[in-house]
Specification:
With 170 residues, the protein is of the alpha+beta class. The protein has one domain: Ribosomal protein L5 (50s Ribosomal Protein L5, Chain: A), CATH 3.30.1440. The chain is globular, with a radius of gyration of 18 Å. The mean pLDDT is 92.
């Protein structure tokens, strides 16, 4: 492709650990996220009350990290290596974003199991878009993006195959 505005790119990578409760487990999850990503995590707050799960609105229930730029690229390579460079096609949503889970943080290279921390899995969400997406999200002179410029599931899969050399399973 010769048009620079049509080149897909990774805008951000969000890594999330849902604990479901505040306290010691949340502190341990934050420690795991900081070890894996190298960035300080942010606490996520419950938006609704769910009595079955014992969650109240406003209660801290997890933590997340948003990575952009070079940090996002390096973390994504590590996370895909943990997944053995394989992702299912259903992991891509209709807008071309990719989501997958990692069952244990010790699967990352160089991470050792710590009995004090325990086992924590995480969700990884990758936003893939083309330049110009900000036009739809900015505050001033907001405009819609034409369908021809939006990412599709197939285009995102092809981009990930080419850039990260992964296998997309049907």
């Amino acid at each position: 492709m010769s048009d620079v505005m049509r080149q897909p790119r990774v805008e951000k990578v969000s890594v999330n650990i849902g604990v479901g409760e505040a306290g010691e487990r949340l502190v341990k999850a934050q420690k795991v996220l900081e070890m894996v990503t190298g960035q300080k995590p942010r606490v996520t707050i419950a938006k609704v009350t769910n009595r079955d799960l014992g969650v109240r609105e406003g209660m801290p229930i997890g933590c997340k990290v948003t990575l952009r730029g070079e940090r996002a690229e390096t973390f994504l390579k590590k996370a895909l290596w943990v997944r053995e460079n394989r992702v299912a096609m259903w992991s891509f949503d209709p807008e071309g974003n990719l989501s997958f889970g990692i069952s244990d943080y010790t699967d990352f290279e160089g991470m050792k199991y710590d009995p004090e921390i325990g086992i924590f899995g995480m969700d990884v969400n990758v936003v893939i878009c083309r330049p110009g997406r900000r036009v739809a999200r900015r505050r001033v002179m907001k405009r819609t993006i034409p369908h021809s410029h939006r990412m599709t599931r197939q285009e995102a899969a092809v981009f990930m195959k080419e850039k990260y050399n992964i296998e997309v399973m049907e």
